[in-house]
Amino acid sequence: MNSILLFFISVLAGVFTQNSSELTINITNIESIKGEIIIGVFNTDKNFLKDGSAIKNYSIKVENHSEQIIITDLPKGEYAISMYHDENSDNECNRNFLGIPKEPYGFSNNIKPKFSAPAYEDCKFILDGEKELEIKLLN
């Protein structure tokens, strides 16, 4: 009886770990040691970068010139990341009159926007187990 129970527990454990993933994001080029880094995770191009459209949001208190976050609650799939350094802790990405962020920001694949915000297609990546990204903040 114990071997049957152990078998079913093993099968269930395999089912639950099949879709598990671990995304490590290393954030570099942090100039000021204050505030938080706010991270948005998107899984579609629909409303990419629109306020309130991220499927998950995370924040990291800035304590060093580089920070790391390990995300374990995303299922395998396609994603894009955006982030900004909320230096003044006002919970928004402050922008100038042209809409360009005044606070440091970054995107997955280290996309550097030229004349407009990047497209989801440029920032997307596949998470299919363990993945490590390095995102360099743009100042």
TrEMBL record:
Pfam families: DUF2141 (PF09912). It comes from the Bacteria. This is Uncharacterized protein (DUF2141 family). It comes from Winogradskyella epiphytica.
